Amino acid sequence: MATTGSGAWGIRSIPDQRGRTAVVTGANSGIGLVTARELARRGARVVLACRSESRGSRAVERLLAEVPDATAEFRPLDLADLGSVREFAAALPYERLDLLVNNAGVMALPYGRTADGFETQFGVNHLGHFALTGLLLPRLLAAPGARVVSVSSGFHALSDLDMGDLNSERKYRRWIAYGRSKTANLLFVHELARRLGAAGAELVAAAAHPGYAATNLQSASARLEGRRGAERLMELGNRIIAQPAEAGALPTLYAATAAGVRPDSFTGPSFLMWRGAPARSWRARWTLDDVAGERLWVASEQLTGVTYEFPGS
């Protein structure tokens, strides 16, 4: 997976994307912005779906400064508010969608709740994207060769889901909650791929993770809580240890564009799941559990009110 005929798979390996429309969530910075920029550079029409209008608009300006002939636009999307998710899907003017990159996320935040009462990390990282994908599913099914790519994390290994406490109401540990939300991302892809296969649909559902990439995600929690020392430590780690966001985006770009990407695949950096060219990534056995995938799916439909409609159903 990590190599092509001319060497390791990289930015220049991305095939022509002209005629394709892509939505990238959380595209205002980090790997989301790199993903949107490189898709646009290859000719895709890209929608940067971001919570903040000011940051989203600035991201479009940055993208167009680097790729002047790009077709890119900002549209507001707050994954912590299912009303916003529904508004985004209803307002999206394109009848077909070739690529949905479920990239946005939050990491290790203090306990909080979304607008709909869900624990923030589970609500944003999983439920918001579950609802968004379901609402956009008819447009994805209408586009030959379409893909859904969900960005998980190696931190999914911290914890399996607690199906009896999806919102961490009994006990909240921020890193365990984060790991569970990333496990949910992988279980979602597993179950979505299974259901698409059973329906005979061409749409490919795959997952990726960036390894340790230098983004704003690591220091966001410390910044919100005013823990300046922890924030500086995270920033130092980004400078010394992490790979740049451009490299961190490669697994996502691979899963989104490379030939032969298989349903329910999980792509990450080749070296110790940390850095390097895209390669098949290890995943915990619980992310391949059909029973758990089905239970999470049913719970997610009940919690979000979004029901998926597959061909022939």
Automatic annotation (TrEMBL):
<protein>
    <submittedName>
        <fullName>Oxidoreductase</fullName>
    </submittedName>
</protein>
<comment type="similarity">
    <text>Belongs to the short-chain dehydrogenases/reductases (SDR) family.</text>
</comment>
<dbReference type="Pfam" id="PF00106">
    <property type="entry name" value="adh_short"/>
</dbReference>
<keyword id="KW-0560">Oxidoreductase</keyword>
<dbReference type="InterPro" id="IPR002347">
    <property type="entry name" value="SDR_fam"/>
</dbReference>
<dbReference type="InterPro" id="IPR036291">
    <property type="entry name" value="NAD(P)-bd_dom_sf"/>
</dbReference>
